[in-house]
Amino acid sequence: MTTFFEMIMAIVIMFTATAAAGMIGMPLLNKLQVGQTVRDDGPKSHYKKSGTLTFGGFFFLIPLMLAAIIVILFWPELQSFSILVLIMLFFAFAGFMDDYIKVRISKKGLSVIQKTLLLGLFSVLFTVYYLYLAPSEPFLLLPLSSNPIMITGWFKLPYGLLVVLYLFFVCNSVNLTDGVDGLASSVTVVSSIFIAAAAWLLRTLAPDSRAVWLFSLAVAGGCLGFLIFNRHPARVFMGDTGSQALGAGLAAACLILGVPWLIAIAGVIYMAESFSVMIQVVYFKKTGGKRIFRMSPIHHHYELGGWKEVKIVIVFTLITVIGGVAALLLILPAWQL
């Protein structure tokens, strides 16, 4: 099987499986009456979305889980694929707990402390695997460099702390992006494809590059399939179940490739969403109630400025394409034919 055909099949199979899971899952979610309650501090235009189904992240998570089991049974050399899916499922569990509480118990969901502890625990578990248990030694490749820096000895401890914070930050950044119909799904399709392209360029340097590009393209296919149900007007949201999982999976994939910084560029929208919240909060506190943005995350700023949801998705996706191209240019020096 050629590499190109393998890549195409990863997208097609996951797209088809996710679409099928959605067709089966939508009636089930309707029967369970798991409608999401829109937060009170969001745009008033979103109030009409209250009651829209949630837990849609399962539409792509279940096919990914089945794919991981098949990989374990028949392609054990692609172990990292299954590990990446496993870390997604851990973070999905934290998101599921939050979603379930919002739907069945209280719209506030998990407390900040509860969610931080869960996400922190799962971040630590992956970090321990990545630094001490993975079959290949961890390394760091800086932008525009072709010489990897091996992570060994005592350096693993401070680097491990950064990895924990990195996973936590990225998964929450993707979660913040999921605030407009089809936005997180569309942006993640593009980000995943560029991460897969980076894995292919780094195939002679990163031992697990094949597993990463197959995983990334499977995620892209899953998000494409999910868009059938999540495009505007959305019939279902992925919820924290899906967004937390996507963030963790993409962040972990970049770590395995040795280019954790890649997500900041190929996932530039994730970063913009997260930093817009941080800037807004800090500025609000420092100025006694003034705001830089009309509302954060930043997609709400443009919504309140008159942009339609579809326009936001198109513009933010195009920006992600530009970021993805820039990210690939930064790793070209490490590309060896």
What does this structure look like?
This protein has 337 residues and is mainly α. It has one domain. 69% of the residues lie in helices and 1% in strands. The protein has helices spanning 3-32, 58-74, 79-104, 112-133, 156-177, 183-201, 209-230, 239-257, 262-266, 268-286, 298-304, 309-331; strands at residues 139-140, 149-150. A two-stranded antiparallel ribbon has the order 1-2. β1 (139-140) and β2 form a beta hairpin. α1 crosses α7 (209-230) and α5 (156-177) runs antiparallel to α8. The radius of gyration is 19 Å and the shape is globular. The mean pLDDT is 94.
Q: State the helix count.
A: 12
How many discrete structural domains?
1
Distance between the termini: 19 Å
The residue-averaged pLDDT reads 94
Structural class: mainly alpha
- Largest beta sheet: strand ordering: 1-2
| Secondary structure: number of strands | 2
- Stretches where pLDDT is under 50 for at least 5 consecutive residues are none
Note the beta-strand portion: under 5%
What value does the Rg take, in angstroms? 19 Å
Main beta-sheet annotation? 2 strands, antiparallel
Portion of residues in helices?
55-70%
Write the layout of secondary structure elements.
Layout: H1 3-32, H2 58-74, H3 79-104, H4 112-133, E1 139-140, E2 149-150, H5 156-177, H6 183-201, H7 209-230, H8 239-257, H9 262-266, H10 268-286, H11 298-304, H12 309-331
Antiparallel strand pairs: 1-2
Helix pairs in contact: 1-2, 1-7, 2-3, 2-7, 3-4, 3-7, 3-8, 4-5, 5-8, 5-10, 6-7, 6-8, 6-12, 7-8
